[in-house]
């Protein structure tokens, strides 16, 4: 585990998710030898699905430690892998927004 804190600045979550999702989408054209994302998009699906469980567990452990920087770091890993999962299975961010908006009371 290597939590990096240098150069981490607050950002706009909407813009960041859209930019990252676009990068991930673009990796469909990349070589799996050169891109981890391209590998996750093309490898056997269990490789990606296992990462979701692993990263979720790491978030849980960081929360148990009440370690703010570590929680942020592991949440970043989890959200990245979730975005790769959405890309792989064809669920767009707009659809996700629709799903969440529909629940708002
Ligand atoms: N945001 C990410 C991102 N977050 C996490 N990861 C990778 O996800 C993996 C996490 O797995 P692990 O938790 O096992 O790795 P780890 O962090 O070494 O292990 P721990 O410290 O968590 O124990 C690492 O290989 C990270 O590099 C990411 N890989 C890519 N991206 C984004 O995806 C873009 C495309 O990257 P390529 O995959 O290189 O094309 C990049 O420009 C980034 O914006």
From TrEMBL:
BP GO terms, sorted: L-histidine biosynthetic process
Enzyme class: hydrolase
Catalyzed reactions: 1-(5-phospho-beta-D-ribosyl)-ATP + H2O = 1-(5-phospho-beta-D-ribosyl)-5'-AMP + diphosphate + H(+)
Source organism: Collinsella acetigenes
Localization terms from the record: Cytoplasm
Keyword Hydrolase annotated: yes
PANTHER family per UniProt: HISTIDINE BIOSYNTHESIS BIFUNCTIONAL PROTEIN, HISTIDINE BIOSYNTHESIS BIFUNCTIONAL PROTEIN HISIE
Principal location listed in the UniProt entry: cytoplasm
InterPro entries on file: HisE, PRib-ATP_PPHydrolase-like
Gene3D superfamilies: MazG-like (1.10.287.1080)
A molecular function GO annotation: ATP binding
Family: Belongs to the PRA-PH family.
Name of the protein this chain belongs to: Phosphoribosyl-ATP pyrophosphatase
Keywords: Amino-acid biosynthesis, ATP-binding, Cytoplasm, Histidine biosynthesis, Hydrolase, Nucleotide-binding
The EC number(s) this enzyme carries: 3.6.1.31
Gene Ontology CC entries for this record: cytoplasm
Pathway: Amino-acid biosynthesis; L-histidine biosynthesis; L-histidine from 5-phospho-alpha-D-ribose 1-diphosphate: step 2/9
């Amino acid at each position: 585990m290597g939590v990096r804190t240098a150069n981490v600045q607050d950002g706009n979550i909407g813009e960041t998710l859209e930019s990252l999702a676009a990068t991930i989408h673009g990796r469909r054209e990349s070589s799996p030898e050169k891109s981890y994302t391209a590998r996750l998009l093309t490898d056997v699906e269990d490789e990606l699905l296992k990462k979701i469980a692993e990263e979720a567990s790491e978030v849980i452990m960081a929360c148990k430690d009440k370690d703010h920087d570590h929680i942020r770091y592991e949440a970043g890993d989890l959200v990245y892998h979730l975005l790769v999962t959405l890309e792989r299975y064809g669920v767009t961010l707009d659809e996700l927004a629709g799903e969440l908006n529909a629940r708002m009371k």
